[in-house]
Design brief:
The longest helix is centred in the last third of the chain and has 16 residues. The chain has a domain of 141 residues: P-loop containing nucleotide triphosphate hydrolases (Rossmann fold, 3-Layer(aba) Sandwich). The chain has a five-stranded parallel sheet with strand order 3-8-2-9-10, with helices on both faces. The chain has a four-stranded mixed sheet with strand order 5-4-7-6. A two-stranded antiparallel sheet has the order 1-11. By secondary structure, it is of the alpha/beta class. Helix 1 packs across helix 7. The chain binds guanosine-5'-monophosphate. Guanosine-5'-monophosphate binds next to strand 6, strand 7 and helix 4.
Length: 210
């Protein structure tokens, strides 16, 4: 055992709705117990199959405003006419505990996290292999009405225009392959020199210097 420990980082996955970021995040969480997920608050309605406290904390507009007012949100944004935000306390607890934390947030939230703590942020943009595939995935998800899907297709272009602001870009053609790619990013980011605490002491000991 060495005395080297690690500071956790914030792993943001962004993509247009339906490009697969939620499936990727779920798989990562299943196999890597050193990663937690940030559960956002939202004012949008719960979709069929969603669960309170697992997919989101569903709140009223008033509750959201009060969280904002009390400085309880790390970042927040309006997406598709609803408010979304990241509760602060869980993120801080996770990072100080030496774990990493995954965020499924949009480009607006990512920009805010970058302003707050650039060194602790690792951002990944997930692209669909084609527009046709994106539409197919939104339709097969069958959680949204035709109107909502049409709106999300329009928004996809806007969301995708922000790809160049991200550290990594993955084209999600195959879920298993994309999960492996995100794993590779996580592994490399954990080895970054500035995330490893106690390295200087460790190397000094190896070199026999004080
Ligand atoms: P959905 O309604 O499909 O769950 O999410 C819509 C969009 O809102 C997605 O692009 C998702 O990444 C984004 N989103 C979800 N939670 C948050 C959040 O807490 N902050 C920000 N900025 N975006 C979020």
């Amino acid at each position: 055992m060495t005395s080297i420990s690690r500071r956790g980082f914030m792993l943001v996955l962004s993509s247009p709705s339906g490009a697969g970021k939620t499936s990727i995040a779920t798989k990562i969480l299943e196999v890597d117990k050193n990663v937690n997920v940030s559960i956002s608050v939202t004012t949008r309605l719960m979709r069929p199959g969603e669960r309170e406290g697992e997919d989101y904390f569903f709140v009223t507009k008033e509750q959201f405003q009060s969280m904002l007012h009390n400085n309880e949100l790390l970042e927040h944004a309006d997406v598709f006419g609803h408010s979304y935000g990241t509760p602060k306390h869980y993120v801080f607890d996770t990072l100080t505990g030496g774990k990493d934390i995954i965020f499924d947030i949009d480009w607006q939230g990512t920009q805010q996290l970058a302003q707050l703590a650039r060194v602790d942020l690792v951002s990944v943009f997930i692209l669909p292999p084609s527009l046709g595939e994106l539409e197919k995935r939104l339709n097969t998800r069958a959680q949204d009405s035709a109107d909502v899907i049409l709106n999300r297709m329009k928004e996809a272009s806007n969301e995708m225009s922000h790809w160049a602001e991200y550290d990594y870009v993955i084209v999600n053609e195959d879920l298993e392959q994309s999960v492996a790619q995100v794993h590779a990013i996580i592994t490399a980011e954990r080895l970054k020199r500035n995330r490893q605490r106690g390295l200087l002491d460790f190397v000094n000991k190896l070199r026999g210097v004080n």
